[in-house]
Specification:
single chain, alpha+beta, two-stranded parallel ribbon, two-stranded antiparallel sheet, 4 strands, 25% helix, 19% strand
Length: 95
Amino acid sequence: MLGAGRRAKKRYPTNVITWHNLSAEDDYLCHDKTVADDLKAMMREHVISSINDHRIYNQTMRYGKSNPHCSLGYFIHPRVAKLVVEWLEVTNGVV
């Protein structure tokens, strides 16, 4: 948000190489299920290598009702876990 008024590369964070956006089906806060189309300028400016949108099903229940925005449901989802493990391996020099 700090870079909103800036131009070109200075508008975006420069410490992100790959962006993975995960949105759960029926997550009421994920109105826009994709960010890749919104962040095309980052690709154009070569600030980021790739932007990947992932859809998941968050099956968390709270008080007997579905709660697809619950962070626990995201954290235990196999796709999220796989992405975190891959990131940890790369950042710790395992790969």
